């Protein structure tokens, strides 16, 4: 078989695999008008996983609003591409211990809680899944008409989560993505409980 055809096929598989990598929500555009709508705010931060050989295929946390009758919830999720000949990740940053992606969610302002998480591994026909054994409730508040930094949520090698403050890394990446927003007064809203 022609070496050029083999090489083209491998490149195509690699590109398709990378395209299937799941990332947290990062809208193409966020306008100042969106952020200044009555009752709304912007939540930003990052989602990461511990660096190791294919430690997780999917990882994520579930967040919901807890101070109103109208429900609102969202999931911050990362996912590896398993369609390529090898597992691929599309990370915004790679560091010595953790690698991950920034996120941004336009949400109603108010009180929120982290109420669930998921960690998932597949190994051929076998898989493992982790989620909370008990009720989980880690609360934080979101200030109206503001950019609220809620931290880096990191899936560790011990099948649990840590929350770090990494504004110095995350905010410049977000500023580059959304240069039209006013980043001069970012509100820090990291939950008090830093591991779960």
Could you name the key traits of this structure?
6-stranded mixed β-sheet; 5-stranded antiparallel β-sheet; 196 residues; single chain; alpha+beta
Overview of the molecule:
The chain is an alpha+beta fold and about 200 residues long. It is about 15% helix and about 40% strand. The chain contains 3 helices and 11 strands, in the order ααββββββββββαβ. The strands form 2 sheets. Strands 1, 4, 5, 9, 10 and 11 form a 6-stranded mixed beta sheet that branches. Strands 2, 3, 6, 7 and 8 form a 5-stranded antiparallel beta sheet that branches.
State the end-to-end CA separation.
53 Å
**What is the structural class?**
alpha+beta
How many strand elements?
11
DSSP summary: helix tally:
3
The percentage helix is 10-25%
Biggest β-sheet, characterized?
A: 6 strands, mixed
Uncertain spans, ≥5 residues at pLDDT below 50? 5-20
Radius of gyration from the CA trace? 18 Å
How would you summarize this macromolecular structure in one to three sentences?
The protein has 196 residues and is α+β, with helices and mostly antiparallel strands. It has helices spanning 3-19, 32-35, 167-177, and strands spanning 40-50, 58-65, 73-79, 93-94, 98-108, 110-123, 126-130, 138-142, 147-155, 161-164, 187-188.
